[in-house]
Amino acid sequence: NSKLFSGSQVQFAAPPNSLVSFLDTSLPGTLPVLNRRCVEAAVSTGLALNCTINKKSLFDRKHYFYADLPTGYQITQHRIPIAVNGCLQYFMQEDKHQNEIVSKTVRIKQIQLEQDSGKSLHDNFRNQTLIDLNRAGIGLMELVMEPDMCCGEEAAAAVRELQLILQALGSSQANMAEGQLRVDANVSVHHPGQLYGVRTEVKNINSARFLAKAIDYEIHRQIEELENGGTILNETRAFDYKLGRTVPMRDKEGKQDYRFMPEPNLPPLVLYDAKSLPAHINDQQVINIDWIRETLPDLPSVKRAKFVERYGFQTFFVILYHCKLNKITKCQTLEARINILIFLVQKNRSLSFIYIYIRTYICVYVHIHMHIHTYIAIDLLHIYNMCVCVFSFCLLHLVLHSCFDGFQSIYY
Question: Which of 244, 290, 315, 328 has the most neighbouring CB atoms within 10 Å?
């Protein structure tokens, strides 16, 4: 749980400048030491996204000057990244009035390792800018996607699927509210048959819902600007979630020269597979791509297939409620499952949630605790269906009654 090139710990909401090493502050004489776990996380993510893993990748210095970047450069992978040419399959509901899920794919151009900068905190009251270096040096895994998406909802669906994959792999908790997953959206519009237009970049969007709104607003803004005879500026914008619109941050008309150069303090990152691993080298001394591939956990697509096959759910419901179904099957006690069920009913006021969750609980209990084969479990479900429906109406009545009368605590 340390940074990419230093031993400082990574912790959300720690006191300012409390998790900083000499390397993070760029004191002379300090040298970077690559975090093995960050490399393994990048390799496993690349494999899960069908990327080609480069057995030899390079680190570079990207020069720019901000107060929260003590070194004056960022260590990144500009020339040869760790993974290239992948794809992400995601699912979205095109028509919210129909229970139909459409599968789409976005190409992954590359995955690269790089270090984060610090954080600038602006105090408008005192007219000061304060620097917190806790974030400086934290390992980042940047995924660059090709322009294959044409609306905000597509981008949001792709990000949600990516979140599930990262969480399943353990590469990241991917909590956007805590900055563990950040999204920059590049948006451009053009007439059919013409080349891509000038693009704008919307920076640091911290939720999938805001991502969809920011992209849709930016598409509408650019189309309206062109139809009125204006021009699109190559600029960086931010999304104001209160106003529901993007606002300018800075323009990019003067192209910045980052003066990329090879990182002299880091050798090439060399990975091995079963064929290229020398006989005299121990597996613990290197990173074996084949070993990581063999130890990959079940990805969300595999888990969804198991829900459909084992518990008899429709594919639509499994994709739509994947996180909730996965959460309830991990609960060890009936009390925990019922607590989740009651919470969701109070939140959604929907019988569909009750039926899905009770059906899942019965399937899990029969399949795991009683060790009965899947087809028998599904047959038993037909027997329980009537009981489930009756119990669902009774439970809904009790829960809604507790909501209206303010006695929610008795169910917890």
Answer: 328
The tokens of 77 are what? 């992978």
Alpha helices per DSSP H over 234-314? 289-294, 300-311
* Residue that has been written with the tokens 């940047």 in this structure: 142
pLDDT band of 95, cuts 50, 70, 90: confident
108 CB-contact burial (10 Å; exposed 0-12 / middle 13-18 / buried 19+): buried
Distance CA 258, CA 275 (A): 38
Tokens of 262: 């090879």
pLDDT band at 192 (very low <50, low <70, confident <90, very high): confident
How would you label 362-395 residue by residue, b for 16+ Cβ within 10 Å and e otherwise?
bbbebbeeeeeeeeebbebbeeeeeebeeebeeb
Q: Residue 26 CB: number of other CB atoms within 10 A?
A: 15
- Paired with 50 in beta bridges are none
Cα(76)–Cα(58) distance, integer angstroms: 9
Query: Do residues 22 and 71 lie in contact, with contact meaning Cβ atoms separated by under 8 Å?
Result: no
Sign of the Cα torsion 218, 220, 225, 226 reads: positive
pLDDT tier for residue 14 given thresholds of 50, 70 and 90: very high
Q: Which 8-state DSSP code applies to residue 178?
A: G
Contacts of 326 (CB under 8 A, 6+ apart): 303
H-type alpha helices, 268-373? 289-294, 300-311, 315-320, 322-330, 334-348, 351-364
Integer Cα distance of 238 and 213 in angstroms: 12
DSSP state of 9: B
Residue type, 222: Q
* Confidence band, pLDDT 50/70/90 cuts, at residue 383: very low
Amino acid at position 243, single letter:
L
Dist CA 137 CA 27 (whole Å):
13
Whether 353 shows a pLDDT value over 80: the answer reads: no
At residue 279, φ and ψ (nearest 5 deg) are: -65, -30
Alpha helices (runs of H) in 195-299, residue ranges in sequence order: 208-227, 289-294
Amino acid at 223: I
Task: For residue 141, give Cα distances in angstroms to 4, 42, 178, 338.
Answer: 10, 7, 16, 38
DSSP label of 228: T
Amino acid occupying residue 343: F
